[in-house]
């Protein structure tokens, strides 16, 4: 059971020593760390420049999220993610509001916060969502570069008024698809080598050969159909202005 694995705290102490190095300021750079719960200030829409206070208890599931993170640190792939993410800045994992229209989980780059909705209770599913948002955090330099290209007009085509938003949206979706593959690789290692439950590999069956997402083109077609890609188009048009 995942809960039993997460409670085996002594088994992860050696790996956590690297994390404590950040927390205790052993590096010359400013201290960067993971935190659990805490501030209720989060970025509410896309990666716009506005932030709001949410009506929620950000620390409600903080203990579970922290223990899931500590268990994941047993995995060398996850360790490398965390090291790279913390080089970019501190990260907070919190429980968000119960707005039925909000994403179940999201990475908010301005706040550097992973926000998981309250209705996603402690479970392998919640732990898996947190790990996927870690891949989004890891890829923040990539998505920042895409935004910079959008602002510079690099996706535009004078012959097609919609080309810019579509090209940008597809590249943003490609980043997320790569994150799904990274998540699968990390979870597969844990399942095979660390005894993790198969339920953690949320996206593996879809990504395997013959699965509904075994190519980026299949994934993109589904996101277009569901309207997810339009979120990226909306961000693009907001940045580019009228």
Please tag this protein with its features.
52% helix, single chain, alpha/beta, 242 residues, disordered N terminus
Describe this structure as you would to a colleague.
The chain is an alpha/beta fold. The protein is 52% helix and 9% strand. The protein has ten helices and six strands, in the order H-H-E-E-E-H-H-E-E-E-H-H-H-H-H-H. It has a four-stranded mixed beta sheet with strand order 1-4-6-5, with helices on one face. A two-stranded antiparallel sheet has the order 2-3. Helix 3 (62-72) crosses helix 5, helix 4 crosses helix 5 and helix 7 (163-193) packs across helix 9. The protein is globular and about 55 Å long. The chain starts with a helix and ends with a helix.
Topology:
Layout: H1 2-6, H2 13-23, E1 34-36, E2 41-42, E3 52-53, H3 62-72, H4 76-88, E4 91-96, E5 105-108, E6 113-117, H5 124-138, H6 140-151, H7 163-193, H8 204-207, H9 216-226, H10 228-240
| Largest sheet strand order | 1-4-6-5
Low-confidence stretches: 2-7, 9-29, 41-51
The assigned structural class equals: alpha/beta
Question: What's the overall average pLDDT, rounded?
Answer: 84
* Strand count: 6
Tell me the overall shape.
Answer: globular
Order of helices and strands: HHEEEHHEEEHHHHHH
